[in-house]
């Protein structure tokens, strides 16, 4: 099932398996003090993928041989005193919209099964330079457009909390791999919420950075004015460490939350009415986000309710931009090689043909108004907090019949370009609930600091789904 996974010489012992549940800093400490080697870490990771991912289906391609070779080099470098930083020796998975040299970038599209990348995407190059071990390519919706579709090139990834529920967005394998304990961090893309949606539904932490903060070179384009690259991880700190590398911010510009970065007196604008009055919002979601904001208040942060523009108008406007831009990028291929697309992706991409220039101009103007409103609020507040998804993860079965709309509060921030952290804040019926923390442009440190403060006061991010049987 997993191309690249062969038979391991022997399964790791219980202690070796448990090490995979440690944070990136804890793993790094063991790699540096001799209690763990990178080769042992990678072998344990491969064994866990083999044991669990038959249920999760998060990986399209596992790079076993390449990862073990890179692990041996990483061990040799550490032994020689060459330390590349916090991700040195840490296994990282890559969404299959992002180029990894010598590996197909399929986008889960029929026409891209053998689309071998000639070179690494810039984000992957930065990870390698930081000593990370690229361990495989992760599941995506076809061209990041439609929901889970069993007729795709690969079967849809499953939500580790409930295998019959959706993962929530096209960075599906990224969140499933982290939630299922296969990896501590992955790299995905977010054009309308595809880093954040899977994080809300799978109980992971996801960061959509400021627009342009992470290069999109070597990433398959969907909508150039909306596309973002960002990390999904098991904790705020794991995400911060990964973003530092992706954005080239290691050193004085690091966004890593630390003891010197105190979150008290942070001013929070709580956009409660933006979701709580929506008839689709589950009462349990409203209650969980209210409780999380209350926790932030108890930590000394100053909370005031604020208003954001009507979400429906923002969603319609940004969707028009997404459809128009994605159609322009695919128009020639849709006409000349329609067989290279699945039916759902073809129809989704072709829908942009119907967006007129006047409609596109009006949509961009609506987007500018929304951006201005958010900017104005962030002059008064350090961050804005609101819900992410209005429900817990939906059943997957209806998606097999047709694409199903999922109620989110994400896409406006793709156009505005503000950094947004998706953070788990609770559960209902065994399924995660998440919220969003929105910050000023290039203030990823601010949203991570608030998220880290909440995480330290809650055990939500420590919860793990049941092991697959």
TrEMBL record:
The Amidase domain sits at 41-448
Database matches in InterPro entries: Amidase, Amidase_CS, Amidase_dom, AS_sf
Entry GO MF terms: catalytic activity
Per the entry, what this protein does is: Hydrolyzes indole-3-acetamide (IAM) into indole-3-acetic acid (IAA).
State the protein's name: Indoleacetamide hydrolase
């Amino acid at each position: 099932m997993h191309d690249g996974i062969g038979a391991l010489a022997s399964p790791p012992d219980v202690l070796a398996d448990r090490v995979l549940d440690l944070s990136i800093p804890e793993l790094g400490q063991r790699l540096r003090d001799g209690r763990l080697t990178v080769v042992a870490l990678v072998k344990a990771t491969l064994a866990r993928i083999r044991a669990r991912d038959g249920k999760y289906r998060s990986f399209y391609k596992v790079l076993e041989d390449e990862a073990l070779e890179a692990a041996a080099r990483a061990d040799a470098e550490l032994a020689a005193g060459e330390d590349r930083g916090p991700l040195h020796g840490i296994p990282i998975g890559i969404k299959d919209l992002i180029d990894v040299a010598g590996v197909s970038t399929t986008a889960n599209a029929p026409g891209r099964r053998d689309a071998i990348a000639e070179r690494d995407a810039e984000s992957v190059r930065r990870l390698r330079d930081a000593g990370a071990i690229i361990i495989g390519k992760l599941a995506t919706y076809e061209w990041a457009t439609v929901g889970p579709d069993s007729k795709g090139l690969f079967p849809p990834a499953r939500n580790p909390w409930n295998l019959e529920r959706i993962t929530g967005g096209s960075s599906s394998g990224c969140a499933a791999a982290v939630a299922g304990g296969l990896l501590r961090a992955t790299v995905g893309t977010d054009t309308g919420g595809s880093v954040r949606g899977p994080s809300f539904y799978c109980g992971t932490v996801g960061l959509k950075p400021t627009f342009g903060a992470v290069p999109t070179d070597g990433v398959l384009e969907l909508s150039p004015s909306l596309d973002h690259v960002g990390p999904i991880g098991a904790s705020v700190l794991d995400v911060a460490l990964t973003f530092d590398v992706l954005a080239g911010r290691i050193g004085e510009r690091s966004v890593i939350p630390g003891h010197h970065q105190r979150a008290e007196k942070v001013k929070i604008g709580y956009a409660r009415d933006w979701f709580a009055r929506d008839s689709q919002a589950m009462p349990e979601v409203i209650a969980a986000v209210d409780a999380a904001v209350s926790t932030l208040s108890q930590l000394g942060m100053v909370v005031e309710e604020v208003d954001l523009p009507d979400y429906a108008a923002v969603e319609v406007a940004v969707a028009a931009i997404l459809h128009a831009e994605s159609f322009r990028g695919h128009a020639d291929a849709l006409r000349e090689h329609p067989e290279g697309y699945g039916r759902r992706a073809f129809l989704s991409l072709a829908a942009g043909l119907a967006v007129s220039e006047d409609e596109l101009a009006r949509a961009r103007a609506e987007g500018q108004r929304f951006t201005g409103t958010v900017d104005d609020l962030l002059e008064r507040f350090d961050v804005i907090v609101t819900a992410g998804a209005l429900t817990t993860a939906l059943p997957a079965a209806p998606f097999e019949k047709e694409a199903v709309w999922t109620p989110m509060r994400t896409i406006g921030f793709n156009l505005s370009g503000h950094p947004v952290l998706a953070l788990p804040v609770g559960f209902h019926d065994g399924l995660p609930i998440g919220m969003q923390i929105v910050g000023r442009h290039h203030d990823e440190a601010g949203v991570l600091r608030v998220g880290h403060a909440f995480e330290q006061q809650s055990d939500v991010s420590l919860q793990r789904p049941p092991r697959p049987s």
